[in-house]
Design a protein that fits this description.
The protein has 481 residues and is an alpha/beta fold. Helices cover 40% and strands 13% of the residues. It has helices at 17-20, 43-47, 70-84, 95-98, 109-124, 140-146, 153-169, 189-193, 203-228, 250-272, 277-285, 294-301, 322-328, 355-369, 395-413, 464-474; strands at residues 10-14, 88-92, 128-134, 175-179, 233-240, 243-245, 307-312, 316-318, 345-346, 352-353, 373-377, 419-425, 445-447, 460-462. The strands form four sheets. An eight-stranded parallel beta barrel has the order 1-2-3-4-5-7-11-12, surrounded by five helices. Strands 6-8 form a two-stranded parallel ribbon. The longest helix is centred in the middle third of the chain and has 26 residues, at 203-228. The two termini are 17 Å apart. It binds 6-O-phosphono-beta-D-galactopyranose.
Amino acid sequence: MTKRFPDNFLWGGATAANQCEGAFDVDGRGLSTVDVIPYGKDRMPVNRGQMIMLDCDDEHLYPAHTGIDMYHHYKEDIALFAEMGFKVYRFSIAWTRILPNGDDDTPNETGLAYYESLIDECLKYGIEPLVTICHFDTPISLIKKYGGWKNRQMIDAYMKYCTAIFNRYKGKVKYWITFNEINMLLHMPFMGAGLYFTEGENEEEIKYQAAHYELVASAKAVKLAHEIMPDCMVGCMLAAGQYYPWSCNPKDIYRAMETDRDNYHFIDAQVFGEYPLFALKRMERLNLNLDITAQDSIDMKSGCVDFISFSYYSSRCISDDPEVIEKHKRPGNAAILSLKNPHLASSEWGWQIDPLGLRITCNTLYDRYRKPLFIVENGIGAVDTVEEDGSIHDPYRVDYMREHVKVMADIINEDGLPLLGYTMWGPIDIVSASTGEMKKRYGFIYVDKDDSGKECSLKRSRKDSFYWYKKVIASNGTDLD
Ligand code: BGP
């Protein structure tokens, strides 16, 4: 039997404003966290809030400043997405293009008009826009004023921003995501929530307080979106990937369950509108002194999400034994602790490749939430070589994606799960979030730009995978050769 995808399955790709737009200081855009996160050795310390950087200096390179200049190339890029047959394009709006200081009373008309034009360009080709409201960008003005999401004032600022974009794009945008990978706040607090720490501060308390405010803001945004756009669907967004236990030692199993709960802390709250018992008990055990009001609980309850969207690049693995952790710690994604699973191959960046893990993750999420699922990021970062004739052969990318698409067919046909769509990560090469590199490429479309910071042509070229994905979409997932 041929494994089929639903007729209305949303095939497409996903990007984030700060990783592709560039043009960081034009048309009234204000400064944002992502603009001050440098390339090189200081990137992770800044992402983690261990090194304070609230402005740019001459010593560092800031890849977000230029990105791939999609700000000026969006028509050309969307035309290429349309050529592949995209049904959906997930992108994020840069908060500071709309409200340059994060909480301005009057939105910046140039910013609003820019995204309206981008949305219209998608609609022109029958591409459904899927908008991430906040993808790793907190306005710097709000960090200077409030210290980022550790302050309750951020909720009002975020709601001002949501009000502006909902009112402007109602009738054009049906799918919304409140915060990209909300659980990454725990691992990259500056990138996720504009947080940084000074000596002696209670980091856990600050992070969980910020998480709470983001969760309240998310719920209030869902409620507002439903009021302004009754037909819209609003999702949460998890950096997903099930934790496997290192062994069948019950201690490892328990540790894996608990580590998964670090992430469910967020999604449970967004789906059920209240903290799960384990989260309440943990916050109590950690002795966190949090500002959580009765009104917050009412707000959280009134803004439950409609679907579960998530990124999936890999499964994860954990042990309860510190020695095992030390010995098998994976050099890959530095942001998240995981062990090297001996059964899995890895990408050049050490990200492990586990298509079946996608099935495990989807089933776990559906068992837990019983809401439609949306895979909004998946892909492999790799070095590509441009041949003399200009062609780019990337069989490794096709292999990775083919195996994941096959698993998606199983998820739909055999498990019967409601999967709304698939927006693979970075259909066009963009700046890497974790490393700031250009050479870590995910795209079907190659962009002539390197890591040197020197001016490049920015020329777009189709890789072999471009034609492969086009065929996959045209056959609605049945021709994967
Ligand atoms: C996710 C982010 C994206 C993205 C992707 C790939 O965590 O939501 O913004 O970039 O991972 O990661 P990277 O770019 O670090 O390879």
